[in-house]
Task: inverse folding
């Protein structure tokens, strides 16, 4: 069995819980409070800036040029989305520059950056995989469930349920599987643990937006 099959199976209870979160339910029904979506977009733009840099770090560390190139493209994609989708929304939603990272956004972004910089390469790659895979699955789930013709969050839904993002996700999974081919069971285990940790942080990210999370002090 490919490493990615094990990872998906291990992480699937977390994915299922994400689909049941109020943030996701309300995105589907179009009833999500605008301030929650605005909070999410503001934090996600900060997240994408860190995520893109984590992907660049992994590209620099990749052992094979083909994998380095893939991660450079992923990094470019993340930063382009940050600029395009978010520049549009940031204007439309009137998000002010200089919004500080929420505690969860800081936790997630810095987890990815530290894994990218310091963890064994295969673990770093596994740590960023939920950002692709869970988003694709959640995007498809929302797209399949929603019934509104005028959902205010349609642009966002289309980005992650789209075919283009699906192909990027398939490539990220493939690189992880190629790297995992030459890894030991202990390395596979470490990869799966990083995958599960990042999946939990995905859950926390939606939750923090729904709660409009603030620093306690
Ligand atoms: C928190 C989060 N995870 C994943 C993605 C998709 O790359 C995103 N935009 N935001």
Result:
């Amino acid at each position: 069995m490919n490493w990615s099959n094990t990872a998906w199976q291990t992480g699937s209870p977390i994915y299922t819980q994400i689909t049941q979160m109020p943030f996701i339910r309300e995105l589907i029904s179009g009833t999500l409070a605008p301030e929650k979506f605005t909070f999410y977009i503001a934090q996600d733009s900060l997240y994408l800036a860190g995520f893109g840099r984590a992907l660049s770090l992994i590209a620099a560390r990749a052992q094979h040029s083909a994998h380095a190139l893939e991660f450079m493209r992923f990094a470019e994609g993340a930063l382009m989305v940050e600029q395009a989708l978010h520049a549009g929304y940031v204007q439309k939603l009137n998000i002010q520059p200089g919004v500080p990272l929420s505690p969860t956004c800081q936790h997630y972004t810095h987890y990815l950056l530290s894994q990218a910089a310091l963890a064994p390469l295969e673990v770093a790659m596994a740590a960023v995989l939920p950002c692709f895979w869970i988003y694709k699955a959640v995007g498809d789930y929302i797209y399949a469930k929603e019934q509104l013709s005028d959902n205010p969050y349609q642009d966002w839904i289309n980005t992650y349920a789209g075919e283009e993002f699906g192909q990027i996700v398939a490539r990220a999974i493939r690189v992880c599987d190629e790297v995992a081919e030459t890894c030991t069971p202990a390395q596979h285990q470490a990869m799966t643990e990083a995958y599960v940790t990042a999946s939990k942080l995905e859950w926390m990210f939606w939750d923090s937006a729904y709660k409009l999370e603030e620093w306690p002090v």
Summary: The chain has nine helices and no strands. Residues 34-61 form the longest helix (28 residues).
